[in-house]
Predict the structure.
Amino acid sequence: MLTEEDALHEETPLLAQVNALESGPHTVNGPSKDDDQYNRFSRSQKRFIVALLSWVGLLPFLASGSFVPSVPEIARELHSTGPIINLAITLSIICAAVGSLMWATYSGTYGRRSVYLWSLPCLCIGSIGVAMSRSVPTLMIWRVVQAFGASSGLSVGAGAIGDMYRLEERGTAMGIFFGACFVGPAIAPVAGGIATHYASWRAAQWALFFMGVGAYIPIALWLPETLHPEVAKKKFLEAAGGDEERTFVWLNPFRSLALLRSPNILITTIAGTTALLTDYALLIPLSYTIGRAYNITNEAIIGMFFLASGVGNIIGAPLAGHLADRAVIKGRERRGGQWYPEDRLRATLSGALFLVPLSTLFSGLATQFVPGMTGIVINVVCLFVNGVAVDIMLTPPSSYYVDILHSRSAEVWAASSAVRQFAVALSTAGILPLINTIGVAATDTLFAVIAWGGFALIVLTIRYGDRMRAWVDVGYTTTVEG
């Protein structure tokens, strides 16, 4: 974590100016504005709201993670195949990407609470539909509805935290929020596997319904609107063309995708996607790779392998944030105080060059060529390392987007996330057929090579980032004050 002294020397747009910090937090953006914006809730109220947002943020991970270990059982019950059922995962990922863009866009105008009250019923209805599905088409339709409803959890939650916390407090609050959300990938596959083996895969879907209801009720009763009324009114009038008589305005959730015209944003997004693909290449077909290689048919045990990756995610997120901050501080020291935004990306180099590709490569080789307990141990270690490494590849670029596009940080985050989700959705549909064709070792080797390509893109951005920003101006932050 950054010390107070480190924070005073960090002058990216994520942090306040030195003089402002020295004179107190109320002077960062002006006394009256800060007092009005950030003092509306007490500390205890903020803690309660963050806890509630974290609960909702868990739901998309639980909805996706609990489904994966159940794929073989669902395929048997619905008289289908694993690759066909995996299409439901692909469709849900695409829908989650679109849903995240839409919910984030509307929450910035109509409020965070309103979006939750619309999205959570979609999750609940979709979960009921999945639990009662008796055919593959029906299953896919309701998985789309479920994913659409769950997709508000992360984007809207991050926006709500930004509403409540000052600049110098926001990082800690975000860390707590995402740290709590990342518990989802660790426990969801285990819970889904246990439910499938000892009850039915439908039990996990009914559990998601009740968890959705458990989130909706406290939000409806106790969650205050965190978006400042003046901010919401200003954005609404801008969208309505100044017409104060209008009560509803249609918003374009895809407008933020235009930010991908920036080569810096597009290239770092692609680099992060190459790392994320290795995560899905290892986890999505796990029942058909590790399960078959080591004769593991118990869905609960299969789910335990996901736990290794999930724990890696929980550890990797704060570690990556610390590495990114240190990279910026050391970069400014080397340049005599000059800020070079791409220094933050140096924190990804160890993960991009070594941890991501090698963990993927060794997992594939161990699965195909190393039998018994030795192979299982190697795979558990590889899954854990990959979980840490993927966060090292994704977290610093997320902060980098905020650094160079401070005024549109939420939009650029949603656009980058949507691209990654679309790419992953298209790729996951072909992972099992590829494994069946060329084998697990060759498939994982291919994804490791792709990940090394991501390393090359990061190096390119670090070296030529300033020139690339000059090619297309999408409204970059040009000073350390933002």
